[in-house]
Amino acid sequence: MTPARGRTKARFWAGDEEMANKKDDDLHLPGHRYHNSGSGPQWQATPRAPRRSSVGRLISYLVFISIVFFIIYNFVSFSDSSTDAASERSAPGGKQGQDKVYHRGPLKFPELAETLRNIQGTGGAYERNKNILFAASSINSASTLLPMACQMSAQEKNHVHFALMSRKEIPIKELLEINGIDKSYARTDYASTSSELRLKLAAIRAFFYVENFMHPQAIIVDSTQKEEDYFLQAIRDQITGTRSALIELPEKPETRLAWISKLDASALAAWNKVHFDILVQAPPVGTANLQRLLTSLRKADKSALSVPQLTVELPPVVEKPLENFLSGFHWPSKASGQLPQSQMLSLRHRISSRKMDEEESS
Prior knowledge:
Elements: H1 4-12, H2 52-90, H3 95-99, H4 112-117, E1 131-136, H5 139-155, E2 159-164, H6 172-175, E3 182-185, H7 196-214, E4 218-222, H8 229-239, E5 245-249, H9 253-256, H10 265-269, E6 278-281, H11 288-299, E7 310-314, H12 320-327, E8 345-349, H13 358-361
Parallel strand pairs: 1-2, 1-4, 2-3, 4-5, 6-7, 7-8
Helix pairs in contact: 7-8
Keywords: Membrane, Transmembrane, Transmembrane helix
Transmembrane segments: 58-76
Region (Disordered): 25-49, 336-362
């Protein structure tokens, strides 16, 4: 017999199929999912809440996806910051990156053709003329060559020209405010944004045009560190295919080689053809004067000339002080910028006119 309290609960939940007793299916009560039909009994499960294991699995998936998203987001952010830092290091302030952008277009000389047409009266169409060309690429070299060009022009022996192939924008009219010098603006286009290779090719091409229209007898340049390397390399490469003489001036040419401005074109054209040797005859006695002479020859300025051959003719009997001096004598000197060469110094003994005895002949 069911207690009164139990019967009360059963009557209270009897109309609610969700709160029915689990044994009600066996009672075939109305309101439950068990029905009889012609095809036989059918049973449909009552909807239930998800199990605790499914909910935990879903939460685990969400946590895992969140962690993966967080890692990918941080990695992308780090890559972007590294790229920005690398770009800033390669081009601080955006200036270095711009300096590396060079113009690579075809070579053009906007003002060279006009200046070459203006020198038609100097006999540039002939290989033999009086044209002398001073050429520079550096502003410091141009300031060194201009006074010498003015002095040569003042002699009125040559047609003096000045070619400027600078990287910087310089108004040549302001640079050549001296009468008597024909200017030649051989500067290529986009020189300020050109690489050294393009500037070298431009210098070679400019010298080619100048050679065909001017035929200079000599080209005078500054060979010191003040001049651009690409410019010197270009003119040295181009000069081999011409008949012009290349004169490379050393340091302080206005004082050491001031006499060059007094030479005419024919003398300057033979600059590279001149070679001389030095012959010194040593006296039989008194070697002090000979030592002073050899010392002065070694200290002489020979930078603009090829090193001459030095030959010293010694007497049959050489004094001991002279022998010691010659053993430590170097020709040319180290100060000349050239390494001492043994073949450039020759020592010869004069044969005595008297008859030698057995000891001397041995």
